[in-house]
């Protein structure tokens, strides 16, 4: 199945695959449609864009994660690091992440489709380079780094507020920003707090 908000691109992919004897069982224009179609049709492969309605941010990648372990091939103009890392690093087979600008060779694209559907992995070299070269701690502001340093010392939010001379609400905002920049998904603040500190200590 194909999830792509651009009607022209979506129909173009359907026709391209049809010419190669690959049937598209469903097509959708948003992440919710992708999830629903995968549940209904159980396709051999889901091809999805990253930025789709309603917010045009990361709906496609979130949907791709939601339908795993169905093989997923992501086509995007961008590297969404937080979810790309989770998708690629999930350890499951059948995953691809290609930048649209590099999908210029039809045969290479079709080869990627077949490989991912068969359980293989196809990752754009630029995606690999960006993810491997990423140090999320560099994205933190000086105040966020100071907050994380104090978190590593075991201070509570109340103690952090006193040390930083700010409100607890401001501390919570700093910590929320830290979690987001480190790509830590909501699974209990205590757990994410430990993960954030471990990332800081590994630097």
TrEMBL record:
Residues spanning the signal sequence: none
Question: 4-aspartylphosphate modification sites?
Answer: 49
Write the record's keywords in alphabetical order, separated by commas: DNA-binding, Phosphoprotein, Transcription, Transcription regulation
Please tell me whether the keyword Amino-acid biosynthesis is annotated for this protein. no
Domain Response regulatory, by residue range, is: 1-115
Residues annotated as domain HTH luxR-type: 133-203
Q: What is this protein called?
A: Response regulator transcription factor
Species of the source: Actinocorallia longicatena
